[in-house]
Amino acid sequence: MTTLLTHPALVLAAEQTEPVASAGRLLTAALVGILALVLLITQFSLHPFLALTIGSLLVAAVAGMSMGDAVDAFSEGFGDTAASVGTLIALGAMFGKLLADSGGADRLVDTIIARSGPRSLPWAMALVGALIGLPMFFEIGLVILMPVIFLVARRAQVSLIAVGIPALAGLSAMHGLVPPHPGPLAAIGVLNADLGITLVLGVLVSIPVIVLAGPLFAKLAARWVDVSPPALFESKVPAGTSTGGSAAPADAGTSTDTPAAEDEPTRRPGFGITLFTVLLPVVLMMGKAVGDIAADEGNPVRSALDFVGTPLVALLLSVLVAMFTLGGGAGMSRRAVTGSLERSLPAIAGIVLIVAAGGGFKQTLVDTGIGAMIAGWATGAGISALLLGWLVAVAIRLATGSATVATVTAAGILVPLLPGLDPTQTSLLVLAIGAGSVFFSFVNDAGFWLVKEYFGLTVGQNVKTWSVMETVLSVAGLVLVLLLDLVL
């Protein structure tokens, strides 16, 4: 099945969007807007929300759109994206915070590591990273994983890189390819992709990608860079009485998010019930995709699966279940569970604003006709939609350092390509953009510095390990997406 941009519907879609200026002026507007976005984020350290807002208005101004229409376009895109994605991000943050605070994340990690031998340890760490990364945002998952990586490396007497890279590969692949992370969710919303199909294909792509960029690449990376784990995160609490909270670096200070002592968990939830809870939203959303394929429209079973598999309902049900299985399983009081859910929201306010502003930037590109112009050029050149999506995301990732900004901006640029794509191809386009969004993490990416400082690496060592791992993950993801496009 081909995704070359030669479908007649693409030309029709381009004709339906009336450009506000000549092609030369629109091209100038796009370049000025993207350049301003890059400079504001990288050189002036402006928050991406503000940069996207300013960039949108600048694009409209250079293109010749009236400021009233520019504000309306940005507001429309911002509101639509916030409504469709913001709630899901909030529910995902609640779920991830409760998983961490209850000790469920620690239970998963400890059980998997305890059942692994020396040779299978990197593979187990990749599985740990994927499981932890499934319901959590990258930064949260990274902080939770670090104590585990250090302790495992120290107790197994292996290189920090040998077990750290597989865990980070699992975490990063989930972040870039699998909803309910904000980047994939935003792309799904902007491109109107089917979440169930995208989720199934994302899991299929992420498994071989994690294997290649994780355990296999770690063998090479451990030879290039051999470092011992620092003396951090040594637990003084017996595993059976752990509160489940992740340790913080020695210089992190006192956290205001720590619940009162009397409200702390008294035990860890069981492995089985924790695994069930973590996988519940994925199972519900996959069930919807299977029902859409296997059952006729109007079938009661399909209707039920469609309802519970809707992202909002699936995540809402998962949070409610987690309150009992994780919170109750850890012996947390109702006040402690409520406090954990409340503390999850401030941390993701910035992410919601970035994603919503990306939607506003997208709508500006659409309303000025820039998106249709790019689609017309791609149609004439015969470029694969999937390859184009990956290249655009890579360019924005390298320029801004933000995977989320790269995803939402690239998705907005490629909206005019949708009429020529079927639902499966649209989901593959989401994955191609997601793969491009994690390409070569470098000094303008906050994740680069988090990994460098935690691992105690030099910039060069971090490039040889973390940055190359991200690149392997990105390129492998693109190759697998293109292969899936040939057979689906």
Characteristic terms for this protein:
0% strand; disordered N terminus; 488 residues; mainly alpha
Taken from the alpha-carbon principal axes, the silhouette is: globular
Number of domains as seen in the coordinates: 1
Strand content: under 5%
Are there runs of 5+ residues with pLDDT below 50, and where? 1-16, 233-261
Give the helix tally: 21
End-to-end separation in angstroms reads 6 Å
| Order of helix and strand elements from N to C terminus | HHHHHHHHHHHHHHHHHHHHH
Main sheet overview: none
Oligomer type? single chain
Helix content: over 70%
Radius of gyration: 22 Å
Q: Give the class from helix and strand content and strand pairing.
A: mainly alpha
Average pLDDT for all residues: 80
**Record field, number of beta strands:** 0
